[in-house]
Amino acid sequence: MAEEIVTMRVGEVSERTGVSPRSLRYYEQQGLLAPCRAANGYREYDELSLVRAANIRDLMASGLTVEDIRLSLDEGCLDRPLHTLPPCEGALQVAADRLAVLDKRIGALLELRERLAAQVSQTRAAVQRQSGVSIPN
Asked: I want to staple 68 with a disulfide (CB 3.0 to 4.6 A). Which of 41, 58, 64, 113 is the partner?
């Protein structure tokens, strides 16, 4: 007897995974999910898609990009819940590289913030000198 494949529509997948229908369609557009199409054109997802969608959501929430995640997908590393899988080869390096990019962006933002804060301080002092009115911080 053949095993019956259970399929779900986007609403059920969304409800079961906490991934919005819009995000599911985005994952599909990005090639991270590949639902089948029913005769009526509706997307149909299987259990594997459910697991992958939840894993993609969690990885994106941790700061990884679609490109980063695609590497794990291509290696079959999203086919079971992340906590049950051994780390994919290269996954640590991908995460460390993404962390380095974030650290660089944070550093640039901190520098920008310091320059803006200095500008605000200089402008505040100039206005106070000109008007004689104290301006609160």
From this structure: 64
